[in-house]
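Each letter names a residue; the fold follows as tokens. Both lines appear below:
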Amino acid sequence: MSDAGGRDDGGRDGQRLTRGRGAARTLGARLSEKLARIGYATPLHNRKLRGRPPLKLLAVTTDPIVGDVAAGREIAAGKLSFGGHTEAVRTLNFATARAPLAWREWVHGFEWLRDLAAASDRKKGAIVAELVVEAWLASYREYDELAWRADLAGRRLMFWPLYAPYILSRSEPIYRSLVLNHLARAARHVDRACEKMPEGMPRVEAAAGLLAAGLILPEGAARTVRAENALRKALEDVLLPGGGVASRRPSDALALLERLLTLRAFYEARKTELSEVVAEAIETVSSGVKGLLLGDGRLASIHGGNVCAPERIAKALALVGGNVRPTRNGAASGFQRMDAGKTVIVVDAGPPPAKDVGSGAHAGTLAFEMSDGDARMVINCGGADGAAAALPDALEGLLRTTAAHSTLIVNDTNSTRLLVGGGLGKGVGEVVVTRHESEEGCWLDATHDGYAKRFGVIHRRRIFLAADGRDIRGEDALEPARATRLLGRRKAIPFDVRFHLAPGVEATPTADGKGALVKLAAGRVWQMKVRGGRLTVDESIFVDESGKHRSVAQIVVSGETESGGATVNWSFKRASK
């Protein structure tokens, strides 16, 4: 079905999306990876990294992505802070047991140079940058399992050349030789280790760094060809048709777009024709990112991804160039976008990611977010990934639950089981989606089987958005699963349909308990009506891009199944201009 006015990744009516993209790695693959890590620490591997050190970089590359000024100011002040942990630059211990793994990965990757440069000029920033680089080289000139991990080495291969004016400002020949020699050795290491990395973003980062090295270091023509092939293969496991990513986390799609745009800058610096694999990936993922934007310019908060600052998203899309068309019918990515008038709706209409890519994923299948103009109205409760501040473990776990999403929950039970450590267990295995568009508006009809085995019901959600964007009609139904119909199960099951509201949005229930007036911060009013359940207004929570959690409201429609099923009808109609 073609998608007028926006991209369509090839979906069709009755599209079935099954959980399985990014299948678990085999035991042989894990063993091969472990043996490779052991081999990297041997003298033989160290000898393979020897070679003529480069005398200089082939070009000066400018980073197209602007860093976080607030984070950069803290770094310029001599504090390396990330994920709730801080270390002083002058007493830096990279391997401190106090630091969480996320902090150590962040420091070893040196992507924080982007933030430093956003907050300080070259002269001041170089003081901090060179202190850290010098300390790092003193500790990690030889292989270390974490510091030399191929994805982190890949980041250094990209960010050290990008910020060469900050880390190579001194004229001291020994120091400069050490920096350039590490880049050459790291490139040789990643060249051998890239394909041993787990499928997903780690392999993409390794391949992208290797490609940057091929472009910016002398005698890199053959390496560039190998790296472009490695990147193509890595993206096949990450990038979905329509611009989604295997993790199904919108903020991961944005991060991938920024990495590809940064890689494009290396081609531009060398005045070399851009590789097709990079160009095509930029086009694809930018459409996916734009399709996941609400009217406020922020991403939908799904599967742990943070909403992100709108300026960051707008900058990345502007760098793409041309008219980026949003993916609307994301048959492969599992996201559906409905937009009309001033209203935008984004629906998570796909199964959760597979086990190996689902760390931190949420159990929010068929949840939706909705905005009116530049004001978000219906939301999910937020995510921890990408937030500026670390969240408490208890809160991070709460955000992953089905109850933290604007969808239906049966018997206060997650639609997909949440595992300790951030993984997902059994639950939703298949989502079936039908989309229909006409002059009247857009209909979306989707079902998931997350409650079929445990409660004998299928959740079916239908949403209609009128062509003028002022009328939204929805239906949430619990239909008996086939096995339940055969067995004749009749036990009543409680359920709740939740509509979490954005900060500043107020909800006032009507006297008959069958509706509510929803008032946006800007004063616009929507009238909500329900049938088939009891409406209440309760408290909820929202985590913004800074990591701060704020009290918000939620509308809850509660009921019980009868004769094995139940139906709740609800609608939002804009009551003001």
Observations:
- DSSP finds 17 helices and 21 strands in the chain.
